[in-house]
Input
Amino acid sequence: MENKNKLSDENIFLLKVTSISQIENKKIIENLIKKKLDWSYLLNKSLRFGVSPFFYKNLNYLKKYIPNNIFSKFKLSYLHSFSSNLKRYNDALPFLKELNEKNIPAILLKGGALAEIIYKDIALRMMTDIDILIEKNQIQEAEEILKNLGFKQITIYESSLAKELKLHHQISYKKNNTIIELHWDILSSHHKFNVNISEFIKNSKRIFIQKVPCFIFSVENLLQHLCIHLDHHINVNEFRLSWLLDIAEIVKFYKNEINWDYLKKNSIENRIEKPIFENLFLAKKYFNSYTPDNFFSNFESEKSNFENNFLFFLDNSNRKLIVKNNLSYYKKIKNIKSLKNKLKYIFEISFPGGNFLKKKYKFKKKKFLIYYNFLHILEKAKKIL
Output
């Protein structure tokens, strides 16, 4: 794909610093750091993109070129990420142990799976929660275990039908500052892509987190999940560089184990090839991860603006792309069978109740309910119409 956008020195530096191995990037980093870089920009961008710990770990030997007040903030972000992630793992371990004792397979997703297995240093993979996939028929039992361990449900649904009819694919619980998201699928029923979650579960492999047994997806399914996950967030104007880095580092770590033929064939068969090809293309181009050249055959990248979208977020992380209307509500309603439940769902997402509105808009006084409900309806209409 031809791209006319030229990366700034700061963005080149950001991409080069943000990787586990620095062998290939060392000379480029050492040359760039001697230039007059905008360190406030790099600090803010790295924090927003979830990659600031790399600036402390990978630039420690070059800190004389970095303003002291900036470097101290990189160090603080590293230490904070380490302590926060350590606490998350420690809070999640009793849950994982009890799941194992009750023969409930737990599949770690995203950062929870990658911080120890891929990054080795848990501080490098910043997280906000621990994501765990449980088979749908065992979710209720898993929820009871969490409750018995002192976790409280924090997910508030717009509609009472949402959980009952499985219109969502996850539910969140919190204890102290640790959030555990329980998933029974990786995609909601109304998502534009579909995967066979039973196949993903069947292909998963056993790992150990601090000597506690659990599972992760096979490397091919892991890449599919993370590529779709990144595609989804870009389409709702959310982007973190760490999500693309995950994909690149997985490819580097499992380079000799990936079945590229299976990954390509399976992605095409399941009609999820677009986000797979696009994000592996970006990982290869911007993070030097390996992908066979023939993997991209028949992939017409010049007809897509995905790389320009990536570069837009790289340059303008505080701005938003213009995205297509949100059709997910149409698909949700279509999946609801009876007319009575369809109408009930439409009413409840329009008037979701005080608890939902207070959490969404962060207000306390009841007198603001009518105002924020009106605002909520306008926002819903804007997304759909």
The radius of gyration is 22 Å. The chain is about 55% helix and 10% strand. Residues 9-315 form a domain with the Beta Polymerase; domain 2 fold (CATH 3.30.460.40).
